[in-house]
Amino acid sequence: MVSRVASSDELQVRFWGIRGSTCASGPQFMEFGGHTACVEIRCGERLFIVDAGTGIAALGSALGENVPDTIDILFSHLHLDHVGGLPFFKPALTKERLVRTYCGNLDGDSAMDSLDKLFSPPLFPVRLSQFPARFEHVGFKAGEILTFDDGTAVETHSLNHPGGATGYRFRHGCRSVCYISDVEHTEAWPDEALADFVRGADLMIYDGMFSEAEYPRCRGWGHSTWEKGVDLARAAGVKAVAIFHLYPGHDDACLRALEAEMQAVMPTAFIARERQSLTLDASGGEAVADWYRAAKVPAV
Ligand SMILES: [Zn+2]
Ligand SMILES: [Zn+2]
């Protein structure tokens, strides 16, 4: 059940947690899933993990023995739905290895102090520093380009969210994927700087927690709508959109209806499903539609 390791020219995305705010559970949530934010991104064989919501536990189990000695976890920000799964990430519990976290919304400070506060008694029985893995916490300012030991670079962008959040753009070969969560759209939309950041991407993972009909009640909460995601994608020439950070009250029937509405406007937009896996190969062009169709069948 482990996703196959991508060949060197592929960019692979797998959703392990797609909910925002808190988990959803029950028979009415089986299709889209219930865990909070966690996405596996493979640039060839190179693993990146974006956010450590509760979905990261299943990712850790699925990795099995196929775990690099150094694991990079990129946080959008540190709200609970993006960090709560971290102590349940098996590779950090089983072996001495390096887990590096990256946080870009604390004015250059790392996640260390915040995570120490959260994962210590009486809130949590043990500290991350007591784990077999060694944690290293890296702080940066959203907007900077992250460069890793192996020369890989990931672009970042500051997002409009209470306390700030960081968007990421992964490029590999001729493909690119953007992760834009958590974000609230602005009055003037699409935001020009954000449109520049995501321009021409093959896939944009976008915070579409609400619909436009629901949004007036949720204004100022730091989240957006699928409609604004589609507007941004169209303005910036983004080829496909995965709506993400799903409202925990939206069950399968509701999300299927929203997806149908959305696809009437943009056929390559869809709502992310837990464990759904997408492969973007090096061929470009028409392949986008091919991997999109493949993605409609959840790989479990
Ligand atoms: Zn969130
Ligand atoms: Zn948040």
TrEMBL record:
<dbReference type="GO" id="GO:0016787">
    <property type="term" value="F:hydrolase activity"/>
</dbReference>
<protein>
    <submittedName>
        <fullName>MBL fold metallo-hydrolase</fullName>
    </submittedName>
</protein>
<dbReference type="InterPro" id="IPR036866">
    <property type="entry name" value="RibonucZ/Hydroxyglut_hydro"/>
</dbReference>
<feature type="domain" description="Metallo-beta-lactamase">
    <location>
        <begin position="35"/>
        <end position="209"/>
    </location>
</feature>
<keyword id="KW-0378">Hydrolase</keyword>
<dbReference type="InterPro" id="IPR001279">
    <property type="entry name" value="Metallo-B-lactamas"/>
</dbReference>
<dbReference type="Pfam" id="PF12706">
    <property type="entry name" value="Lactamase_B_2"/>
</dbReference>
